[in-house]
Amino acid sequence: MLASDFGGILPWTKYTSAVALTFACLIALLARSLSVGCPGEIRLQPQAFALTGLLLVLLAAATLQTVPLTSRLVAWLSPASYSASVNWAGRILPVDLSQSLTISIAPFDSRHAIANLSIAVLVSFVAVLVFHHRGRTTWLLSAIALGACSVALIGLGRKLFPQFHLWSFRSGGEGAPFGTFLNRNNAALAINLGIASALGLIVYRGSALSHQGDAGESAERTGRKTFGSLWLRDGVLLTALVSLCVTLVGLIGCGSRGGLLSMLVAGTATVVLTRGNRVRLAGVVAAIAVVVLTVVVLLRTGTIGTETLREDTFQQIGSTVTRGSDRLSTDTRLSHWPDGFRTAIEHFPGGSGLASYGYAYLPWQQTSPWRHCLHADNLWLEMFVELGLAGLLLTALAAVLMVLCLRRLYASTDPLDQGIGISGCYLCVVIAVSQTFDFGLILPANLLAVVMLLSVVVARASTVVLAASGRENATPGTSGQPKLKLLPQDAWWRSPRFLQERVFQIACAAGLLVIAVFAINRLRFDNLVDFAVRTADAEFQYHRTDQPWLDRFAAETRTLAGQHPHPDLLDVLTRIDFQRGRLLELTLMNAGRIPQTQQAALYAATSRGRRRLGWRAADPVLSKHVTDAGVPVSPMPVSPPLRSPDSPYALALQSAEASLRQRPLAMPPRIDQVYLEFIHRSPERTKAAIRQSAALFPNTPELQLRFGALAANHGDYETAVQAWRRAATLDDHMIPRVLGRSRRFPDFPVEELVTSPRDSIPH
Predict the structure, then answer these.
(1) Distance between CA 386 and CA 353 in Å, rounded?
(2) What pLDDT sits at residue 79?
(3) For residue 176, what pLDDT is reported?
(4) Per-residue model confidence (pLDDT) at position 181
(5) How many other β-carbons are positioned within 10 Å of the β-carbon of residue 475?
(6) Which DSSP letter does residue 2 get?
(7) In the prediction, which pLDDT does 212 show?
């Protein structure tokens, strides 16, 4: 889990982690099939797999969003998804309403998320089979606690020893990277998972050593003993105590306000909700508090390490509680949430599709900041937008399930149940609070750890059953109150239900393994796409005029796109084919036989921004007001070979159109429609593409300036006025730039920038 998110959340890390986890699950299932009659095996009730069932329902709901449905059904289930395909993309590309549509407005992104979720479902199911054993449960909690310690230690090491660059992924920047995570909020959630595990271990071992423990464990029959005689000699307990101290220091040093807030709320809630717990930890808590505070003071004063903790670590926390501070009130995520709720209502009840939030909210912006919000910074709001009614119901069912399970564990007399109950209580509150201000739970490492921990909570709770009545359990000298008992842990394979239960487990495991295989194949293709995209970004600028390299890379990319037409890959293919078309056009012009100065001028005239202007200048109807930022443009008609269906320019247009159909609210394929106007020869399409792009990013001044320039170059001054006036309204510093650009066009109506009351962009 630690390695799966090492240095970033990338397709290749998800792919390799999925392969490793699936292989590990297969080994565990084979071992499980050979474990009949082994000591410690217990009969697992169907309720033990309740969490897996919820995840399967989530998986099914998300998959349904990517299945093509009739346009009428999509319009009823998700009106905004229908609008994205018909009213937005449909104004640029022809849409046949008799064809099927998907609820998801980004189906390839949704299928990628579904593939990752499929692995989590498999892990959840196998975790129930593996970690119901007492010893393996202890090892799971210990492993997660130690993993969180490694994140905390690496993060603190990067802060205290900045000259050590092994884990320095980038120096500073937004998110203040911490540990193996590029964002401190994600790291804080991972550390909180370690705190939950450490608390569970402390309560488990402390309860076992302080009170009459489980009758099946001879080490726990000693009853009450002093702290010094037993607690300091218990390896698991010492590991948990050290882990708790390290993770608490790491969480403070991390500086995540959401992480600290969730820790404080979860700690308080856990103490209040489990105040009747039988283990006395007042002394332990006091000792841990003293150790943690001492270490923090030493780190702050520079006693440990070559440098002190950076000022921003404490300023980030102090600004939240300092009187007169306005950091929270001006937090961009708070101003964005109203748009998120508006988006959820527009997509209700079917949602917009898993992992599509970054596109879904764009048409409904009113209060969002300038930035492109790929996530809502609120996982519950994001689920509401992407899954709609299904997201609300599944969240409510998960909450009810965890409350019921934690109540059972709280009432159990087994020390292990008490420890798991404490861990589960802390974990659930941490998730509820932290994910209101973040989305770190969707990260594979955090998701897998949470899935395993909660699977253990549910499975363990399913083994605790209430007695039928108080009278049956009343014995002389007792109050007659109903007690709890655990399911028998003897030779359960002799039960008549053995075959039924084993067949159920094998069938479910086989089905989940098949799903995991398909998921791995999807992640493999996504990994290849990401590799191609990154290769193009890194090498394209060095091979712009290398015709053999461009042809070879285009052929390889087109082959991959034929197998897996991912929008990102199609966007790269559009760019590569456009460049191939430029070189072909220069060849047809015999550019190699003219002076080098003229060659450079021709090469510049065929650029993405200017080629369409030369085509417009050559058209008698469209040539009016055509300039390049006020500079006259020479006519450049398009020769017939460049318009043939198999020409590079035509192939680039096909890729751009396919990308727009896959992501009807994306900006790159829209701008490609503008650049390729000389191929599709539809000025109305160009006008719609520019206006829609401006409407989708209405709060980004730089983009408004750019869109206005695109429109002004071909004389669409109405669109340019609206975009530039919007840019000046958003940012006062844009006013000189807007006026400077507008004055480059001799006939531009500059006065309308001031007098026009309209600042919105129609789409």
Answers:
(1) 5
(2) 96
(3) 59
(4) 77
(5) 8
(6) T
(7) 43
Residue 325 has pLDDT above 50, yes or no: no
Distance from C-alpha of 91 to C-alpha of 689, rounded to nearest angstrom: 8
Q: 367: number of CA atoms within 13 Å, CB side?
A: 15
CB 65 within 8 A of CB 104: yes
Angle at 236 between CA 234 and CA 241, to 5 degrees: 95
DSSP state, residue 369: -
Q: Using 50, 70 and 90 to split pLDDT, how confident is the model at 554?
A: very high
Helix (H) or strand (E) holding 244: helix 235-254
| 54 contacts 503 by C-beta, under 8 angstroms | no
Residue 90 neighbours by CB distance under 10 Å? 17
Question: pLDDT at position 200, please?
Answer: 93
Asked if residue 187 lies in contact with residue 258, where contact means CB atoms within 8 angstroms, the answer is no
- Please say whether the dihedral angle defined by the alpha carbons of residues 557, 559, 560 and 564, taken in this order, is positive or negative: positive
Instruction: From 325, 339, 407, 399, select the one nearest 368 (Cα to Cα).
Output: 339
Check pLDDT > 70 for residue 49.
yes
Spatial distance between the Cα atoms of 545 and 236, rounded to a whole number of angstroms? 63
Look at residue 484 and tell me whether its pLDDT is greater than 80: no
> Measured between alpha carbons, how far is residue 743 from residues 621, 736, 749 in Å?
25, 11, 9
pLDDT of amino acid 477: 42
Separation in Å, CA 60 to CA 126, 454, 622: 19, 20, 51
C-alpha dihedral (691, 692, 697, 702), degrees to nearest 10: -30
